[in-house]
């Protein structure tokens, strides 16, 4: 980018000014901010611009069920579809719960709380506040991802990783009134602080993470792994005597920090207490899952069910279950990459990645392409592999193209994930 | 002083506390923000204005956009509120006005139902409209419409406070005006201006009202809410919740409805044997091995109808006790229950020492694990038994004329869903079907044809032909019109009773017309089945004409009546009870207007 800008012939005044400043930027010093920011800006331009054009140029479905919360501002209206309605209802009316029916208790509270807090600053426009919260969290998440990846793999990998995740085909949900960016932000903050051995901050961020999403509390396991790792404990060394001696020593001298990590489930417990007090069912978020067609189907039940449906499709005529196809594909990819994560980053991250996809897959493969979006270790591995030019180019073409396509689908009320 | 304080601050222990305190404070602030967000910002909102009494809603020009809906497709159609979606479990719509906890009020709604149920929800609490609310449902259950009332707590399962069968077949449409009258802590229910139940405890006070379709479409019309000022405004039959010596109330009013919930000791039900518990709004006796397990209610009744809705989880022999003189045992009370083998129902009474005296038995279909409704009408001197809407026995003499109501099982696990008691006032019976004597008939020999208007034996060979009619009893009147053929001069017909088994003549008594109606004779079959005559009279009846024959069977004797005149009184009986049958000599012999009245009253 620098070379192109500096070689630009007969630059106008503003570009000359910009070029001179860009070239003088200390990328080594500010890379942690600039790379995430550029990834953010470029991909959001695709999503917001593409979404806007898709909404005005593609004749979408009409009817009462295809609602538009902000018809006066299509730039933000396009970011509110499907589950966004539940979040907006929570922000406006608080939670509700009707056993056996789709209820807002299924949606964890951190994102709606943030939107509720932010809305007064934007003229009580919940849609605008929701979009802004999502984007701010995404930017924060990319920064933490960059910092964390830099620690683990170096800055080159970190640069690629933030682009890959921001341009991932379902990354449109980072902009939407969905909880993806919030969850990614807090989970990455948790892991980053744990990796930095700032256990109090890790515990606090973990607490918010566990109240962000149904699988949020899984981050606790990751933090505990980091704590164990800080005391030279690893699964691969459990047969060695000194491993356990180190752990015993750590428990004796570092119990305070271990205690900090135990803040993580407090967020989930707070939400469960709220559900118990208001609706009498502390696991109401789980109880209502069946009304979305999700229910415990065993470790392979959902996969087999979707795989069977694939056997009865006709690619030639277009009678295919493309959602199922994508979901099963991403399931397979994430499982494979999780094993690589396990090997490269340790058992904690491998298990976290596996649980991140297998927990939702246990009740159904629907929406897995969205759930995979926040499993950041797999993007770190892709970032590492991206040093191969051919792979980097392939991903940087495929990801944004499909991001654009998926954005068009989403904006026009075609259920994606 | 300052130096001392500074030294303290620089103490390593204090420094470590400071290091810990700052993040702890931050964590507390963060947790506080999370909980403030939950409880302060995302708490379910209640923004409903109170009803302006009286509230009238005829659904003519109503805008229901702002009404709160849970599922279904709600619309105004021809001046009615309609939920027209048929393929769903239930749907609700709530009127966005609230009643105060202090308000006494009456809510009324017209329901139009066909095949599937509808209900009125009241005092629905916000948040959780669908959870914390009272409801009165009109639903098809056990092949008839029933009113089920109760409440929902936190879950989606109704907690039944009672159920009242409406006596309307479930396949008929139901159009009814439902009224609920609510006071401080009780409510009463009226259907089509007839008070069905009152003094039902109120669990939730104040809140919203809603209409619900259950398992399909439903129509609603003429909804109104009217304020009432005091308890006196509510129709109040005798309290069913406080023990009273004898309950005397208006005619045909439900005076007690079971509430199988909460603590058994405080519920008004007291077990004297067995393992009785409340589970999911039902009363269950779990001890399988053993006889005459019982539980007794704390009120006494006289001149009433008691209806028990129950099923067997295991075994066959559940039933009820009634007119018990005390709550501590079955002694002195009346009993009706299924037999241990499930092949029939029997009834009788226990004496003061607990010895049982049977008063009757009838074959029935096995109860299996289906729900059954057993009803007893206890009048001043007699009682009647109705099983699943069919009269089993009528006018049986009462050994005990008033007392407590109980439930019982033997060798079975019984599940009792409800007990409902209504007074009978001066009336003697509630309309029911007559005893179906043909339902369990069993031919022993001959060619018997069973038609709704009579039974005909067509075998013409010279022999006795017998059919058992599936009733075992002790004291009763059996009567029939008997038509003998004109062309066969020695034909005859009559009854056979106290048979030891349905197909065994040995030991049974028999009386019949003989010689084409010229004589009537009676006697008994010996141990080998050979008939031993005990007497005969000339009656000289015209063949080809129906003649009325009645036998009044008492404890130790029987009377014979022909054409409503007692021909032979007090023929001694050695056998106490047994099966009933018809007998014909040659044929064709026609038995019409066959009728049995349990108890030893005159026909």
What features would you describe in this structure?
The complex is a heterodimer of chains A (417) and B (603). With 417 residues, chain A is mostly helical. Chain A has helices spanning 2-6, 13-24, 27-57, 74-77, 84-93, 110-118, 126-153, 155-167, 180-195, 199-210, 219-230, 241-253, 255-261, 264-279, 284-287, 298-310, 322-345, 347-363, 368-371, 376-385, 389-411. The two termini of chain A are 35 Å apart. Chain B is mainly beta. Chain B has 2 helices and 45 strands. The model of chain B is unreliable at 230-251 and 426-435 (pLDDT under 50). The interface between A and B is medium-sized, with 36 and 30 residues.
What characteristics describe this protein?
heterodimer, A: 417 residues, mainly alpha, globular, disordered N terminus, B: 603 residues, mainly beta, eight-stranded mixed beta sheet
Total helical segments of chain B: 2
Query: Could you say which overall geometry of chain B the principal axes of the C-alpha atoms support?
Result: elongated
Number of strands of chain A: 0
Order of helices and strands of chain A: HHHHHHHHHHHHHHHHHHHHH
| Proportion of residues in helical segments of chain B | under 10%
Radius of gyration of chain B: 33 Å
Radius of gyration of chain A: 22 Å
Strand content range of chain A: under 5%
Which class of secondary structure composition applies to the elements of chain A?
Answer: mainly alpha
Largest sheet of chain A: none
Q: What percentage of the residues of chain B does DSSP assign to strands (E)?
A: over 45%
Number of strands of chain B: 45
């Amino acid at each position: 980018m620098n070379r192109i800008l500096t070689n630009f012939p007969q630059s106008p005044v503003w570009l000359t000014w910009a070029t001179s400043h860009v070239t003088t930027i200390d990328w080594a010093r500010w890379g942690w901010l600039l790379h995430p920011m550029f990834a953010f800006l470029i991909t959001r331009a695709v999503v917001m611009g593409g979404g806007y054009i898709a909404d005005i140029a593609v004749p979408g479905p009409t009817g009462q069920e295809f609602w538009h919360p902000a018809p006066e501002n299509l730039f933000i209206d396009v970011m509110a579809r499907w589950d966004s309605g539940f979040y907006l209802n929570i922000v406006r009316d608080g939670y509700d719960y009707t056993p056996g029916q789709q209820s807002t208790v299924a949606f964890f509270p951190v994102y709606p709380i943030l939107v509720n807090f932010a809305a007064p600053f934007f003229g009580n426009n919940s849609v605008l506040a929701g979009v802004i919260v999502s984007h701010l969290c995404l930017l924060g998440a990319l920064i933490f991802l960059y910092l964390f990846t830099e620690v683990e793999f170096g800055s080159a990998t970190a640069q690629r990783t933030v682009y890959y995740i921001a341009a991932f085909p379902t990354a449109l949900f980072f902009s939407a009134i969905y909880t993806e960016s919030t969850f990614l932000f807090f989970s990455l903050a948790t892991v980053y602080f744990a990796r930095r051995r700032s256990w109090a901050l890790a515990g606090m961020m973990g607490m918010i993470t566990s109240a962000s999403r149904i699988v949020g509390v899984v981050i606790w396991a990751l933090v505990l792994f980091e704590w164990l790792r800080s005391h030279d404990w690893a699964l691969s060394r459990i047969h060695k005597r000194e491993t356990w001696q180190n752990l015993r020593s750590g428990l004796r001298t570092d119990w305070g920090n271990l205690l900090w990590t135990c803040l993580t489930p407090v967020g989930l417990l707070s939400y469960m207490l709220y559900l118990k007090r208001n609706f009498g069912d502390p696991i109401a978020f789980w109880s209502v899952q069946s009304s979305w067609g999700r229910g415990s189907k065993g470790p392979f039940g959902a996969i087999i069910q979707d795989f069977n449906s694939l056997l009865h499709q006709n690619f030639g005529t277009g009678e295919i279950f493309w959602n199922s196809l994508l979901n099963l594909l991403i399931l397979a990819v994430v499982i494979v990459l999780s094993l690589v994560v396990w090997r490269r980053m340790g058992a904690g991250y491998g298990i976290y990645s596996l649980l991140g996809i297998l927990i939702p897959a246990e009740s159904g493969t629907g929406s897995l392409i969205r759930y995979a979006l926040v499993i950041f270790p797999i993007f770190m591995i892709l970032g590492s592999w991206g040093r191969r030019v051919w792979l980097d180019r392939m991903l940087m073409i495929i990801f944004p193209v499909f991001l654009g396509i998926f954005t068009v689908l989403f904006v026009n009320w075609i259920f994606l994930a | 002083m300052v130096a001392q304080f500074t030294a303290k601050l620089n103490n390593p222990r204090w420094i470590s506390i400071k290091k810990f305190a700052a993040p702890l404070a931050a964590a507390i602030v963060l947790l506080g923000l999370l909980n403030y967000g939950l409880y302060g910002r995302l708490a379910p909102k209640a923004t409903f204005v109170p009803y302006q009494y009286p509230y009238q809603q005829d659904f003519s020009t109503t805008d229901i956009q702002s009404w709160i809906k849970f599922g279904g497709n709600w619309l105004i159609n021809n001046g009615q509120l309609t939920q027209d979606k048929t393929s769903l479990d239930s749907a609700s719509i709530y009127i966005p006005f609230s009643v105060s906890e202090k308000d006494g009020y009456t809510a009324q709604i017209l329901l139009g139902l066909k095949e599937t149920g509808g209900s009125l929800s009241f005092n629905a609490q916000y948040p959780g409209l669908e959870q914390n609310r009272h409801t009165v449902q009109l639903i098809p259950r056990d092949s008839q419409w029933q009113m089920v009332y109760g409440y929902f707590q936190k879950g989606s399962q109704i907690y039944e406070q009672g159920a009242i069968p409406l006596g309307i077949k479930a396949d008929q449409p139901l159009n009814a005006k439902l009224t609920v009258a609510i006071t401080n802590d009780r409510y009463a229910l009226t259907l089509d201006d007839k008070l069905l139940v009152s003094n039902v405890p109120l669990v939730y006070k104040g809140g919203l009202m809603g209409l619900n379709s259950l398992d399909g479409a439903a129509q609603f019309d003429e909804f109104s809410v009217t304020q009432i000022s005091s308890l006196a405004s509510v129709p109040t039959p005798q309290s069913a919740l406080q023990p009273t010596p004898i309950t005397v109330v208006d005619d045909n009013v439900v005076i007690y409805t079971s509430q199988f919930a909460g603590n058994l000791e405080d519920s008004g039900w007291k077990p004297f044997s067995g393992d009785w518990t409340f589970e999911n709004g039902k009363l269950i006796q779990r001890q399988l091995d053993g006889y005459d397990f019982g539980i007794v209610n704390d009120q006494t009744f006289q001149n009433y109808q008691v209806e028990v809705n129950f099923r067997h989880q295991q075994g066959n022999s559940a039933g009820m006790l009634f007119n018990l003189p005390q709550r501590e045992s079955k002694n002195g009370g009346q009993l009706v229950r299924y037999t241990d083998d499930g092949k029939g129902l029997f009834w009788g009474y226990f004496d003061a020492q607990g010895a049982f005296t049977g008063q009757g038995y009838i074959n029935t279909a096995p109860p299996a694990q289906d729900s059954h409704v057993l009803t007893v009408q206890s009048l001043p001197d007699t009682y009647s038994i109705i099983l699943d809407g069919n009269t089993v026995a009528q006018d049986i003499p009462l050994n005990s004329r008033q007392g407590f109501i109980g439930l019982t099982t033997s060798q079975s696990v019984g599940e009792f869903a409800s007990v409902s008691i209504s007074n009978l006032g001066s009336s003697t019976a509630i309309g029911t079907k007559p005893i179906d004597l043909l339902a369990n008939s069993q031919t022993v020999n001959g060619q018997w044809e069973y038609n709704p208007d009579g039974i005909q034996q067509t075998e013409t060979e010279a022999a006795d032909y017998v059919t058992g009619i599936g009733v075992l009893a002790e004291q009763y009147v059996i009567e029939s019109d008997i038509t003998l053929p004109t062309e066969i001069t020695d034909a005859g017909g009559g009854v056979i009773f106290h048979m030891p088994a349905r197909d065994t003549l040995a030991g049974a008594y028999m009386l019949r017309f003989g010689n084409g109606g010229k004589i009537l004779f009676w006697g008994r079959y010996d141990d080998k089945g050979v008939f031993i005559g005990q007497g005969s009279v000339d009656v000289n009846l015209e063949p080809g004409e129906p003649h009325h024959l009645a036998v009044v069977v008492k404890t130790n004797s029987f009377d014979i009546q022909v054409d409503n005149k007692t021909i032979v009184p007090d023929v001694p009986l050695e056998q106490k009870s047994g099966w009933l049958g018809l007998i014909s000599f040659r044929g064709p012999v026609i038995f019409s207007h066959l009728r049995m009245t349990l108890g030893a009253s005159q026909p």
